[in-house]
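Bumping with the actual sequence this time:
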Amino acid sequence: MNRYRIRTPQIALLVALAFTAALPVQAETPEEKGIAIEQERDRRDTGWGDSSVTLKMVLRNRHGEESTRLLRNRSLENTTDGDWALIVFDEPRDVEGTALLSYTHKQGSDDQWLYLPALKRVKRIASNNKSGPFMGSEFAYEDLSSQEPEKYTYRWLRDENLGGVDYFVVERDPVDVNSGYSLQVVWLDKTEYRPFKVEYHDRKNTLLKTLVFHDYQQYLDRYWRASRMEMVNHQTGKGTVLHFSDYRFGNGYSAADFSQSSLQKAR
C-alpha cells in the first residue's frame, strides 16, 4: 500500500477547506460602516458628566465687518436621553442675560427655550423653527443640540487624506422631519474620531454651510474639545467663529441647574 495515499475523509476535508476559503467574505455595507463609525465616536465621548466653558462669538457679515459677543455654556450629560445645555450671554449690553436652554432627545424633536430679558419671558422654540439662526449667528438652533447617534441615519462615503491626516467621510441624514438640512457630510479623523469638518446641505440638497473645527485639546486624559469652530454660510457670505476657553469638568451640576426657571437666574 502506498504510504502517501490520502484517505477519502482527508480528501473531503481538504476540498471543504478549499471551498470555504474561496467563498467571498460578507462585505460591510456603507450604512453598517457609517453607523459603526458614529457609535465609536459616541462611545469615546461618553462619561464626562458635566462641563462649563467660556465662549467668544464673532459675527462676520458679507463685507467682512465683525461684532463680538461673550457668553457661557454649561452642559449636563444625560445617560437616558440626549444631553442638556444652557447658554447665557454676558456682552454686549443689548443681549446681556439672554439664555437658551436645550434638552436634546434621541427620538423626536428637541426641546428648547429662549429667555429674553427685555421681555422678561421665556419663549419656547417651536419644532419647525429649529432651522432658524441663533441670535443672528450662522449656527441654527438645531446645531446647538448634542449630536446623539439616533438623530441621524448614516452612510460611509469614503476614506480621505487631508494634510497628512486620514479621515472617515460619513453622510448623515437627519431623522427629524423638522430639520433644516437634507443631509450633512462629516469628516472624522481615524485616530481619535474627532469631527474635523461638517458640510450642511439645505432642504433643496444645496450646500448651505461648512463648519470647521480647530485646535483640539484633550481633557481628563480622554475627551477632546475644539478651541475654535468656524461656520461659513456659502449662500449669504456670512460667518460665525466660536472661541472656547476655560473648559471645566466635574462642576457638580444637577437637573435643577437646567430647569426653565433657571433661565431667568442664569446671570
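The C-alpha cells above came from a reply further down the thread. Residues 1-9, 11-25 have pLDDT under 50 and may be disordered.
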